[in-house]
Write a structure and sequence with these properties.
Blueprint: H1 2-25, H2 34-45, E1 54-56, E2 61-62, E3 71-77, H3 84-98, E4 108-114, H4 122-130, E5 139-143, H5 147-156, E6 161-163, E7 169-171, E8 175-178, E9 184-188, H6 193-207
Parallel strand pairs: 3-4, 4-5
Antiparallel strand pairs: 1-2, 1-5, 3-8, 6-7, 8-9
Helix pairs in contact: 3-6
């Protein structure tokens, strides 16, 4: 009996230790994966959109200040992508369609940023935008020509881009919402279109009259 009692206590101690390690390792059960923890940290830190120079599909160059006092709904992609990027941009178009027209261009703009600036020149971006009915104004596609500036932007927003020997990239994908002060406000699952649109609309509605 004494031996059984000892075994029971030992088992309980091991269970409690495992529980503690699990709780700590998952940010209090909120972050079940490293990606979730990374996103949670980004939203908490609210990094500022770096002062980089964008070049869009019309060959225009400007910084994020071009969209002063507007929300910016952002994705990161490359046009040669044959896997996630087309779905990412298609889902972006579905979010765009769910935003009331009174907000489009006035309170929010959409911006798709290529991390393959060598191949994704303005002409390529201009052609690519047409696949998703992006108008080039309220939804723009752009690149960051300077490598060091691009790296600063990707790093700030936690975008992981790993090139392979065939000219492709392994990368994470999400919807990013930059607020009117140029800070990252939200990171959203790009597969949950209705949820993302509802969140953006709620933010826009709350901001009316302010």
């Amino acid at each position: 009996m004494f031996k059984d009692k000892h075994s029971t206590i030992a088992s309980l101690l091991i269970l409690m230790l495992g529980f503690t390690l699990y709780f700590t390792g998952t940010d209090g059960f909120t972050a079940f994966t490293a990606e979730t923890a990374r996103v949670n940290q980004l939203v908490e830190d609210k990094p500022l959109f770096p002062n980089v120079m964008l070049e869009d599909s019309n060959g225009r160059e400007y910084s994020i200040s071009e969209f002063k006092d507007k929300y910016v709904f952002v994705t990161f992609l490359y046009t040669s992508c044959m896997t996630v990027c087309p779905q990412l941009e298609m889902n972006m178009s579905l979010v765009y369609e769910q935003i009331p027209s009174r907000y489009i261009g006035e309170d929010i703009v959409f911006l798709s940023i290529s991390f393959d600036p060598t191949r994704d020149d303005p002409a390529t971006l201009d052609k690519y935008k047409d696949y998703f009915d992006a108008d080039g104004e309220t939804w723009r596609m752009a690149r960051v020509p300077e490598q060091n500036e691009q790296e600063a932007l990707l790093d700030a927003f936690g975008v992981i881009v790993i090139p392979d020997q065939y000219g492709n990239f392994a990368h994470n994908s999400a919807f990013y919402l930059v607020d009117k002060e140029g800070r990252l406000a939200e990171v959203m699952d790009y597969t949950l279109v209705d949820e993302a649109a509802a969140k953006v609309n709620r933010i826009l509605e709350e901001g009316e009259g302010k």
